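REQUEST FORM: STRUCTURE PREDICTION
Request ID: SP-0412
Submitted by: Lab K.M.
Chain count: 1
Length (residues): 255
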Amino acid sequence: MKRILFDAHLHIIDPQFPLIENQGFLPEPFTCEDYLDKVKEVDIRGGAVVSGSFQGFDQSYLIHSLQTLGSDFVGVTQLPYDTPDEDILELHGHGVRAIRFNVQRGGSETLSRLDYFAKRVHELAGWHAELYIDSSSLPEIASVIENLPAVVVDHMGLSRAGFPHLLHLVDKGIRVKATGFGRVELDVPETIQAICAVSPDALMFGTDLPSTRARRPYHHDDIELIHHTLEQEQFDKVMYKNAIDWYVNRHAAQE
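STATUS: Completed
RESULT:
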């Protein structure tokens, strides 16, 4: 039986659109067709296409990806803080639902703009902010994050050292992506259980395909690891229910 998944974190790398070398790295192509082939063993109910550092502020690839994958997929983009309102609303019409701050790799707006820009896009379009950040850096911006309307942290915050800070923010209402198991310095089952214990609604699984620069790429066994870690009701929430509520239902209620 195929596992149901709303893939909360995936990347599309299409060489027909601009790519930027980042820290000496330029990724291999991973098109929409490549993605769909890779997840054919899973019952995909939608997903979030996330802009990477190597895509900078380019929106052409993201619009094309969302048009190709269909209306069940949404976008997480990177934009400069002074992007005009009409451009943000146009992207919203294409299915973009979040702004990303890539602290770990760059290519996005800086954290100095986090408070202003996250509040602005939320007020304008209902978007949330996504942070690719090592959780050991969270105390420096915790007071800002706690006062933002909607925040997601990628890859479970990456580090064991910062995990207590992440859990504190989960208790305050932020969401977390259970993604990039080959990137993190964490005991993955223990981390998943701890986050779900604080907030059953917080955790959302994503494949992180194609897992660029990860020590180990995504494998379908990652899903089974979660299944063995959680009871069925919580497993379903992490695999698709939480993400659908966050990326889809929340916006439908706003509109």
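NOTES: The radius of gyration is 17 Å.
Reviewed by: T.R.
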